Task: structure prediction
Amino acid sequence: MSEYQYPDKDDKLTAALINNEYDGLSWQKSEEKVMSVAVAAVSGLSTGRHHRTLLDVGCGIGRMFGVFAEHVGRIDALEPDRDRADKAHSQGRRIEERTGTKISVINGTIGSIAKDTKYDVVLSSHVIQHLGSRQAEELVRAMSDRLCTGGLLILTTTYAYDGQERFYSESWDGKVRKSVRITPEDFERVYRDGTDLPVRMFAEETITKMAETASLRLADFRPFHGKIDGQRTEHEHQPRDAFYLFVKVQENKSVKEVGR
Result:
């Protein structure tokens, strides 16, 4: 089996999206606003800072775990793409030196973490929208399985702001980002093929239903990364992404029990 490689090498597709369709500064501020909600929730956990643990699932080059480093005592980060995991490792060493928080980057998937290993916080930023339908559901459950009761799942993903889910195949065509709307069936094929980047715009209901079946209760929901109106005000419309904060309410039943 060939080694996994994330289809958007060096995040060129994401950079092109931000630069061509959004204002970079407003994009950053929008993300910072929702992440401040997540940081406040993590800081409010009863576990003391140095005893808090966080699992970052699909950490990429390590862009997000630094946001939480000063609020937890240990971070385990997972990334299946070896090159991106190496970059995340370097990022982790720099953050570790600055904050004292122990950071371990693992080149692997959530299956690399034993199911009985529990964390206070699980973070997954813009991963689930690139997975097939079955794999997305399995990931939500697997993340919930690794949360202690009362723990937090911080999830960001693309968002169908009008409730109508859409599916895309994105690729790099010379110097241009190419985004083509496709059927749900073709989306699954693109996911399996692994050459182009599949992107699913999730309806809020889809994500919350996945979470409910995995013993997760919605604590906060906020659309973000909207387009700024013509007057360059703070008002955003047509948000591209959504932030979800879930609380683990009880231990999950076994697969056998769920199937009864």
About this structure: The first strand starts at residue 53 and ends at 57. The helical segments are 12-21, 24-43, 82-99, 133-145, 184-193, 204-213, 255-258. The two ends are 35 Å apart (CA to CA).
